[in-house]
Amino acid sequence: MAKKILIVEDDIFLRxxxxxxxxxxxxxxxxxxxxxxxxKEAKKIMxxxxxxxxxxxxxDGFEVLSKIKADSETGSIPVIILSNLGQQEEIxxxxxxxxxxxxxxxxxxxxxxxEKVKTLLK
Length: 122
What we know:
This protein is of the alpha/beta class. The protein has a single domain (4-121), classed as Rossmann fold (3-Layer(aba) Sandwich). Helices cover 45% and strands 19% of the residues. β3, α3 (61-70) and β4 form a beta-alpha-beta unit.
């Protein structure tokens, strides 16, 4: 059975790019365009992994991550932060809140993102 990935990303171009790449690699991809939607989708579909942007409408990625990790149903889902914010401060905060990894979009190709996801799901 295909692993379910939830992509929480407000940038339509990036969302489609990463979604296409994940789908072509055999993942079952769901999308959320803002923070509130991301939290709702996570509870609804119970994905195997969440790719989470930090700069989002309605609630930022840190808040989304906190809500997902605080919920007993979704708390064990690995979350990879995928952001253009790459300061040590943001990285530390994300990891402290429970993110499994912190990837800086500008430094990675979609292929590299897929590889990180595969490694984490092994």
